[in-house]
Amino acid sequence: MGTWMERAACRDADPELFFPIGATPAPGPLRAAQRICGRCAVRLECLNYALETGQSAGVWGGTTEEERRAMRVEALHAARA
In the list 2, 18, 20, 78, which could disulfide-bond 59, CB 3.0-4.6 Å? Predict the structure, then answer.
């Protein structure tokens, strides 16, 4: 069956969709990456990997860098409560 990475819907997609060059990703490629993630059977595994390993660049599990940063901050606040 392979690892979650081997089963990911993005495995044959253009990496530039998920790791755009530049400070602000263009909306078209970002939406294309998120559409691929939206139909992926291992989306949650991908997102968990990104959060657990501190992936700060690219689209992981359908989330942007800013969305994952907000998730980490929220998790830190919840842990302190």
Answer: 18
Distance, in Å, from the CA atom of 76 to the CA atom of 51, rounded to the nearest integer, reads 12
DSSP state of 53: H
Quote the pTM value: 0.87
Instruction: List pLDDT tens digits, range 50-75.
Output: 999 999 999 999 999 999 999 999 99
**């989306």: which residue's tokens?**
43
Helical ranges in the chain per DSSP H: 4-7, 15-18, 27-38, 43-53, 65-80
CA distances from 55 to 42, 47, 49 (A): 17, 9, 8
CB atoms within 10 A of CB 47: 19
